[in-house]
């Protein structure tokens, strides 16, 4: 095959590896991620998270799933914690989890401005960020506080207060789901221009009103002169995409797709918003640098051989993870142990 394009393997910094959801009862719990769901979408590095449910889903299970996917061929990390505060941990503290468990790069996704959160205080968030920062410093990791943003009234106010009123730097916070609505996205632009990272969620539900699709979100960033290196995208893969009424009643539910990450990049390029060499940074080097993931995000000497081969139509043809061929001619040649 000739005329192909070679890009780094995608880094998806927000995936529900053991599933998520459950907002509509036990039958609405989303399934675990399978290896080929990630690799056929060009994802060679993934960061796993818990979400709303930290009762029937556990940190130990998330860690085991991440280790299993690593054994099957890709690179994995996780966040400790979930929506609720106090956050669930493995060792008993956020700082210890980050320091002592190799795969833990931060704490999250902790819910803010969302009716599903445990309604913590601003001080709770400051303390979590402080624990994560020290754990990161002691271990050489990013030590971020990864925040789930809901569409509540507070938006990102507490984060701006914390970075103003304490000595914590803005880089310790990595909020996600900014493109939930226009008002929240404008807060994301403000956050990025102050030095933070603006993360765009690529999975979206056709029944979610007001959500800004990734191409439009990136276009808005460019129009607002947000530095490209301050923008990332993540899929929210295998999380649930619930829709609630004004009274907080569930009116619809879908499961997020990891493949939406690749599709967002393709849509941005095909719409002429960014050339491929810039669009690809949103899902490779930008998240890798933000989370201090070693040897990830670039095709360069000393980096892992995580490679995606695209044809002229930007279709994924081949995928290599750490030098091993995982996808050949659009077909997964390496599958998870229990994949048919």
TrEMBL record:
It is an enzyme of class 3 (hydrolase). It comes from the Bacteria. Its cofactor is Zn(2+). The keyword Oxidoreductase applies. Residues 5-324 form the Amidohydrolase-related domain. InterPro entries: Amidohydro-rel, Metal-dep_hydrolase_composite, Metal_Hydrolase, Metallo-dep_Hydrolases_sf, Pept_M38_dipep. GO terms for molecular function: beta-aspartyl-peptidase activity; oxidoreductase activity. Keywords: Hydrolase, Oxidoreductase. SUPFAM superfamilies: Composite domain of metallo-dependent hydrolases, Metallo-dependent hydrolases. Its EC number is 3.4.19.5. PANTHER family: COLLAPSIN RESPONSE MEDIATOR PROTEIN, HYDRANTOINASE/DIHYDROPYRIMIDINASE FAMILY MEMBER. This is Beta-aspartyl-peptidase. It comes from Pelosinus baikalensis. The gene is iadA.
